[in-house]
Design a protein that fits this description.
- The radius of gyration is 21 Å and the shape is globular.
- The protein starts with a strand and ends with a helix.
- It has helices spanning about 10-25, 40-45, 65-80, 95-105, 135-145, 165-170, 175, 200-210, 245-250, 265-275, 290-300, 305, 320-325, 330-345, 350-370, and strands spanning about 5-10, 30-35, 55, 85, 110-115, 130-135, 150-155, 185-190, 215-220, 255-260, 280-285, 310-315.
- Helix 1 crosses helix 15.
- By secondary structure, it is of the alpha/beta class.
């Protein structure tokens, strides 16, 4: 008898993390799948030809403020009658993912897929019964936050298909679309919806001023899907249209600079999958307000990819230009690439390992019911 899994997501990272699981569920005769989404996740799923229940509510700071959303979550559970719920993760506010978890009865196990080390959203006071995480570090951090939840190391789910994506098919599109010469030193600033932080604007202004002083360098700003339209962003930003395939940006860039974007992890994972380093990731954390925001958002006073050597952290304005220039040196790139290979950031089959855990949990519940 098929077991129904209700999948949900609400931001790009969460959607991309559960998408491989959805595809695996669709092709596995043990399962039936239903999908709920909101925000950017709805758009991504619909672009993939998936049928989605679209939820418009989200972005709550507490469960007391989310009464209508909880009602919707309970109605979705009642309608779909799932045997299990599996969500992506997003934050720092809560939405349909967290509402489904807190609304599920005890006989419906809940699972969440991390796309960042130790990411746990407890805004509504309850975590998932089980978390699927990237590696040992993610497991350790997650267990500190949700000691009563199960944790399984499965690798980075959103990157599980990277081995099958040929970089030669992607190369050149991003530069051509934006009129960037093939031999230019391309530094791509990865945008995030953080314009409410004064330190974000100051960080981007300083980075642009430094990049333009590097001979042969070209800077572009890639807006996040949740940012305002390009026309509404500051005129001094060298904005480019968001690419439908982020790997087109990765393979054409020399350096990816961000505050704390998952695109840097995408670049490292693709380097692991293709055994070739395209872009070096750099976290710009010299502004006190920005570094505090990252620490509060992630619960860590360090960036996992940078600590492992798979990317670099720039902690002072004085070192920014020098570090950018160092990424052009073969010895520096080789150090980063060696760290990426050692950390095994892209391991195929993560989605299949998730299905095995979900099925095992459901089988255990069936055994208990029979007794």
């Amino acid at each position: 008898m098929e077991k129904k899994v209700l999948i949900s997501a609400r931001d790009a990272g969460g959607a991309l993390s559960v998408l491989p699981v959805i595809r695996a569920l669709e092709s596995d005769p043990r399962f039936e799948v239903a999908i709920v989404a909101s925000g950017v996740a709805s758009t991504l799923f619909e672009r993939e030809g998936l049928i989605v229940d679209n939820v418009l509510l989200g972005g709550f700071d507490s469960i007391d403020a989310a009464h209508d959303l909880i009602v919707v979550a309970k109605e979705l559970i009642s309608t779909h009658r799932p045997d299990a719920i599996l969500t992506g993760l997003s934050g720092p506010t809560a939405g349909i993912d967290e509402a489904l978890i807190v609304s599920a009865s005890e006989d419906i196990p809940t699972f969440s897929v991390q796309d960042y080390w130790g990411d746990v959203n407890l805004t509504f006071g309850k975590g998932a019964d089980h978390y699927f995480v990237i590696d040992d570090l993610a497991e350790t951090i997650t267990k500190l936050q949700v000691a009563n939840s199960g944790v399984s190391k499965v690798g980075s789910v959103k990157h599980t298909s990277y081995h099958s994506i040929d970089p030669n098919v992607l190369k050149g599109f991003f530069r051509c679309a934006n009129g960037i010469e093939e031999d230019a030193f391309l530094v791509c600033l990865i945008g995030q919806p953080l314009w409410h932080l004064k330190g974000y604007e100051q960080t981007m202004q300083f980075a642009l001023s430094e990049i333009t002083n590097i001979p042969g360098a070209v800077a572009v700003y890639l807006p996040h899907p949740a940012e305002p339209e390009i026309a509404e962003l500051p005129e001094w930003l060298p904005c480019v249209e968001p690419s439908k395939q982020i790997l087109e940006v990765v393979v054409d860039s020399d350096v990816l600079c961000a505050v704390n974007s998952s695109v840097i992890a995408d670049a490292a994972a693709y380097a692991a999958a293709t055994e070739h380093l395209f872009a070096v990731g750099a976290y710009m954390l010299w502004d006190v307000e920005i570094s505090q925001w990252v620490e509060e958002t992630t619960g860590m006073d360090f960036v996992p990819l940078a600590r492992s050597g798979c990317a670099i952290t720039v902690q002072s304005q004085e070192e920014f230009s020098a570090l950018l220039m160092s990424t052009r040196q073969e010895a520096h790139r080789e150090r980063v690439f060696s760290a990426i290979k050692e950390n095994k950031l892209c391991v195929p089959g993560a989605e299949l390992r998730i299905l095995d855990v979900v099925w095992s949990k459901l089988a255990t519940l069936i055994e208990h019911e029979d007794k």
